[in-house]
Amino acid sequence: MNWPDETARPRSPDEPCFSQPGSNICLDFHGDPMRARLVIFSDGNHHMALQETLRAFLLKFPEVGDVFYVTTPPRVALQMLQAGCLNIGNLRLSITPHVFISPPAVLDQLIAEKRMTAYQPFMHSRGVVLLVRKGNPKNIGGLRDLLREDVRVFLSSPVNEKVSYQIYTDCLRRLALHEKISLDFLAHPPACPGTSNVIYGEAIHHREAPQALMDGRADAALVFYHLALRYQRIFPERFDSVWPTGSQGNQHCDINRFGFGLVGDGGPWGSKLGAFLMTDEVTSIYAAHGLERAV
Asked: Tens of pLDDT along 100-117?
């Protein structure tokens, strides 16, 4: 059910909103914004490594009290910063980050808007895999299986998650060229005839992809390796993953890179976090979650 606005103060149509119809679960907003002395806006697909990193940071600096951090698609975090607020269902958050973590194109935009003066490369992904249900009941092993009539494929939203969608579809095209096959569904916009075996996420694919498999709406989902690793660790009885033929080691796939920078002066703790993000400890944390240090 798509609930109507029920706030006492009517919201401005210019204010960005973020919600998922039928759900009141906001898993990508973390911490206590009233207590936190450090606020971070981040892209979401590395949320599991960021959580462990920020816990380690709080152990070193308990006086921070709490870290409030957002792990949404870059579009949402950018809109939230630009507007100074975000409406989540009937909750309105008015908060500004001290640190922004995102792909370079987003950080370049923040520099152009003079919200940030510089940023540093941070981490990158290790490629793309196919997430499947435990035991791989459809025996999906590569791109050719994605063409089968009995296989439905999940992709992130081409409208609301353009960065991941572009990486995933570019990877599919390169792999298809390498294997000399044609993935016709890539030639059609979403919802056009000929794409009935493809379903698309709506807002935040790192939550939607495993749910689509569990709901039986998809048989395989194209996700970053580190996302599949996360799902297999926290739901070991539900998911497996397979490397598409030829993709292991990123021979034919772009990787997802992201950096970080201070918004304004970064507040009292932004610079300290920036220094911590560059330590060997954080490199090890991200490596354990399937990501690598960017150079």
From this structure: 999 999 999 999 999 999
